[in-house]
Amino acid sequence: MRIFQLQRWTAIALLIFLTIHMIVVHYPPFHIDFSRIAVRMADPLWKAIDIAFLAAVLIHALAGTHQVFTDFQRFSRLHRVHGVVMVVLGVVAFIYGTLTILAFNPTAATETTLLLP
Fold first, then answer.
1. Contact of 41 with 9, CB cutoff 8 Å
2. What is the number of alpha carbons within 13 Å of residue 63 lying toward its C-beta?
3. pLDDT (tens digit per residue) in 80-104
4. Residues 61/17, Cβ–Cβ less than 8 Å
5. Is residue 38 within 8 Å of 109, Cβ to Cβ?
6. Which CATH number covers residue 11?
7. Number of domains in the chain
């Protein structure tokens, strides 16, 4: 039952984060402008929003995968192993994604964008 509730709460969070993402990244110039992304990623608040978005996506996707799996195998050892694998995969992906977001260097991205034709 808790996984079901987790799915619903992360779905609401995804609606909010996807709306923010679409408005900020895709809507204004009608194309992706990497210099605007570099400016946005220099702000710690936007990094926090992106990390929360990453967490919501991972929780929603992995909990959904686990629920689909448990529809076929109710109570078995494989069920527990799959649950542990989903948690470990989620933690590893979250750490990797968070480190990638935090390591983003806006000045290097702007310099690279200026070199492109």
1. no
2. 17
3. 888 889 999 999 999 999 999 998 8
4. no
5. yes
6. 1.20.1300.10
7. 1
For 13, counting Cβ atoms within 10 Å of its Cβ (0-12 exposed, 13-18 middle, 19+ buried), the class is: middle
* 98 close to 48: Cβ distance less than 8 angstroms: no
Q: How many CB atoms lie within 10 A of CB 66?
A: 20
Quote the domain boundaries for residue 77: 2-115
The pLDDT score that the predictor gives to residue 65 is: 86
Helices marked H in 1-117 — which ranges?
Answer: 2-21, 34-41, 44-72, 77-103, 106-115
Distance between CA atoms of residues 75 and 47, nearest Å: 40
- Residue 14 and residue 85: Cα distance in Å, rounded? 23
Instruction: For residue 41, give every residue at least 6 positions away whose Cβ sits within 8 Å of its Cβ, in sequence order, or none.
Output: 47, 50, 101, 104, 106, 109
Q: What's 34's DSSP letter?
A: H
Paired tokens of 93 = 């992906």
